[in-house]
Specification:
alpha+beta, Helicase, Ruva Protein, domain 3, two-stranded antiparallel sheet, two-stranded parallel sheet, 48% helix, elongated
Length: 149
């Protein structure tokens, strides 16, 4: 068990190198998540000691990443249109290219327009929340679809 953040990062990077396109990024995001800090803190304080519980949580997350679980499910969040969204396997991860839809609506109506928007079949709610945030004078409704069976 590595005793400090720097050693934990190096060990995780080595393990993730076989399956990850960016093991350095993945290891840093996971350890920052576990320690409740940003990646800059990891780089500037590699001597930070990990508790046994922190090491175990980090090791479990690395194992899940080795099994190709998406980073967003491991950290529980995804950035979308400048906002942070909580995600879980129960919803689809908001995709970066979906931000183009939000941009298209803003290009068409502008931020100060008062319009009614309905997001039918919303998943994470990222589109509706992003539009409501960007267009505070508008009325935005998000409707989730019920799953059969």
């Amino acid at each position: 068990m590595p005793a400090n953040a720097g050693a934990a990062l190096e060990a995780a990077r080595a393990r993730l190198a076989a399956t990850s396109k960016n093991p350095r990024r993945d290891a840093g995001l996971l350890l920052a998540h576990v320690l409740g800090c940003d990646q800059t803190a990891l780089l500037t304080h590699p001597e930070r000691l990990l508790s046994a519980a922190e090491w175990q949580q980090f090791d479990r997350l690395v194992e899940r990443r080795l099994a190709s679980e998406p980073m967003q499910y491991l950290t529980g969040e995804q950035e979308f249109f400048g906002l942070s969204f909580e995600v879980s396997p129960a919803v689809l991860i908001p995709r970066p290219e979906t931000e183009h839809l939000v941009e298209a609506v803003l290009d068409r109506f502008g931020r100060e327009e008062e319009v009614r928007i309905v997001d039918v079949g919303t998943g994470s709610g990222a589109i509706a929340v992003s539009l409501a945030h960007a267009m505070p004078r508008s009325q935005v409704t998000a409707v989730a679809m019920a799953r059969a069976g």
